[in-house]
Structure formats: C-alpha cells, structure tokens
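Re: the request from the purification team.
They wanted to know what the chain is likely to look like in 3D before they choose a buffer screen. I agreed to run a prediction and write the result into the notebook, where they can find it.
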Amino acid sequence: MNTQFLVTAKKHAPILIKCSVADKLLSMIPVPVVFFYRQEIPINQLVEALSQVLNDFPVFSGVIDQINGELHINCNNQGVLFSTTKNNKRLDDILISLPTLKAKHLVDLVKPKKAKSKKTPIFTVKVTRFACGGMAIGACWHHSLGDMHTFMYLMRAWSDTINHLEYNKPLIIEDREHYSESRIEDNHCDDPGLRYLEGKEIIKYMFYMMFRARNKREIKFYFSENELRNMCRAYSEKAGIKLTRNDCLCSHLFDIINEIDVFTPERMLSIAVEFRRRTHFPRELLGNYITTLRFNGKQNPDSGTLAKNIRKSVNDFQNHFDYFASKKYLVQHSHGNQLDRFIAKAIDPLKRALVITNWSNFGVYDVSFNGAKPCFFTPLGEFPFPWLTFISEGPENQGLVYSANLPNPLCDKLVQKDNVQRVHQYQDPNEIPPEFISQLKWLL
C-alpha cells in the first residue's frame, strides 16, 4: 500500500534563514539520490527517528520564501514529504534494470519552481520495500538548503538516532552571506565565478532550458580500485608529482569527453570543492559552502597537464578562491537586475562546461540502520540540464562510479566499444570484477 504524509519536528522554534549568493545560484537544481539496502527497516522507526532529528535540522522541514526580493528558507516546520510504497520485484532485479526505471518510482522529485511559488516541501524521503525484504531510501533536496555535506550531516544524525548513538548538533546561521564575509579574507583573486547574460544571450539561455536541455540521459562508468591505482601511477609519472585519483580521473574523463564532443578548446572543466575545512569553517555548518576550480581546455592541452594543474590549484586553493571576486562582479554588473540574469561559469550548459562533483569519502555507505548498511548508493533523477556529473563509491563500497548526465548524441558516442575501451585503458585485462558488479551491465 502506498502512503504519503508530512513528517514534522517534535519541537520547533521558527528560524528565517537569508540565503547566500551560492544558495540562489543553485536554487533551480534539485538533488535526488537513492540508498539501497538488503534489509528492511520498520517504517515507524524511520519516521520516529527523522521526527526527532528535525528538531536540530529545521531547514529540511521548511519552505522557500521570497522576501523583499531576497531568497530565504523559512524554517516553519511545514514538514518533510515522506512516502512509502511496495514493489513486487526483488532488489537485485531493480538494480539490474535501474537505467530503465523512471526515477519517480524511487524518488519524489523536488520541483524548484513549485517549491518557490507554491511553498511545497523542499526535502522528500521515499521508502520502497521490495519482495526480497530489501528496501530503497530515495531522498531529494532543494539545493538552496545546502550541499552534499549538509545532506550527509542529516543522514548521519538520522542513522545515529536509530542506532541509539549521540550526534553532533548542526550549526545553523540566519544570514549565510554575512557569516561568510565576516570570516573569509579577501585574497584579491580577479577571476569571478559569475558572468552576466546580456540581452540576446538570456533569450538563448531560456530557449536552451525549455527545449535543448531535455535532450540528455545518464550513463555510468565503473572504475575498480586496481584500475584507479594504475591510472594514478601513470599520471603521476607523466606529471612528475604525486596525484590523487580525483586529479587523474577528472582529467582523464574531461580529455576524452572534450575530444569526442567536438566543440571548442574554450570548454571549461569545473571541479566542485567543499571549502569548510579549507577556510576553517566549522564542519557542522549547514548550507552551500562549495565553490569550483575551473580549467580551460585550451590552457590544458593534454590530460597530464590538466591533472598536474588540478593538483596545483587544489594545493593553492586560497589563491584561487573566487568568493570576493564574484561578489565584486555581482555588485558591478547587477544595476538593480535580478540574480537570474547571472550564471555560474562552472554551470554553463550554453558553453558545455563539464561539472564534476566528487561525492566519495562522504560516508554514504556508513548510513546504517540497526546494522543494515547500503549495498549501493547513486544519484538518480531528472537534473534540469546536462553536463552535471558525479563521482561516488561503487556498489558495496568498491571502486568508483562516474555518473554522467550528458546530451544524447555524446552518450551515443561514449558507449561505443572503442570509446569505452579508451575510458578503461588503465584496466587490467585479466581483472575479474566482483559478481555483484558484473551483473550490472549498465555499469560501463
């Protein structure tokens, strides 16, 4: 039987949060993800624990408000949309057919425009129970609430509550922009992360979002631990410095995509960076504390050079941090115009900017409930436009999976045998993948 209801906090104190520029720029993006479990957790336990946790995480049970032209999160305890459903298939059958399954069967998608105009829930949870006794927990949040760190802080607290463990309370700031400005030193970076859309370009952008942005799909590539070690070894030798697997994988994928999708050497690679630790912000701070490091294809003619420059930029993050440069650009070009005339350079589908967000090391496989741990975690759903891609741990926490939302013509090329072989050129031909992973034929 399918049910749908609102879960509210047991104790509620109203808070009105003024959103930051980052929150506003991300306000049209919902973030849908799914955790798959081989054991089922009683619904009443999940609901009861979530209700307790919302006492400390009121942003998730609020609504989006526009007040005096400014975006706010009104923590009014309207509630989290919680739904349950029963699927007569086995968990393994669902995973095998995952690419053909409509996201709505596992996730209740947040509609950003509707959330703003109709005050609909900005966080949803959907629990799907399977015939074998397994389950899926699909979650979707309005990106203005916060980044992946914010979401995982809630998920860990939810897990800890069911497991009868204490968790650290989150830090909620009522004016996110003021908080950041008072703690970040101006590094005199002169490369803003925004650009202003002129008259003709805003029309072109609107046309793209209404029509061309829908011509996309998701494909996933699996990289084993051994393959990643081989890749890192080869790239580090080429660069002459020690590189991380994120440096190598990002440059490797960008190089192949940039070559296959003939466009322009000006294409941008944007790597998302969560900067709490790098700016000495508290780890318990909720919100969007992410920025991007951007790399021009023309200035990085090969994957080895790109990997080396990624590592240098990460190590020298403070000098590349564009917070104040973006603020200055916004003031200089706004002239009373709304923020919707600005676009983040990192997320620019008109220029086919490839965005790579690394969600590994966030502890998604540690979200356990009474001993039940996820066997698979993945982003799943309809993103508003292509070029948004994600790296996360693979099934049963083995290797890495690259989930890429890309235009259909590019996907058609990438799945061709010779291009799949290029992607996996560092794979040991004698390596035998784990049985569970080999069953998922859609993992290229």
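For the purification team: The chain has two domains: 3-178, 195-438.
Please add any questions underneath this entry.
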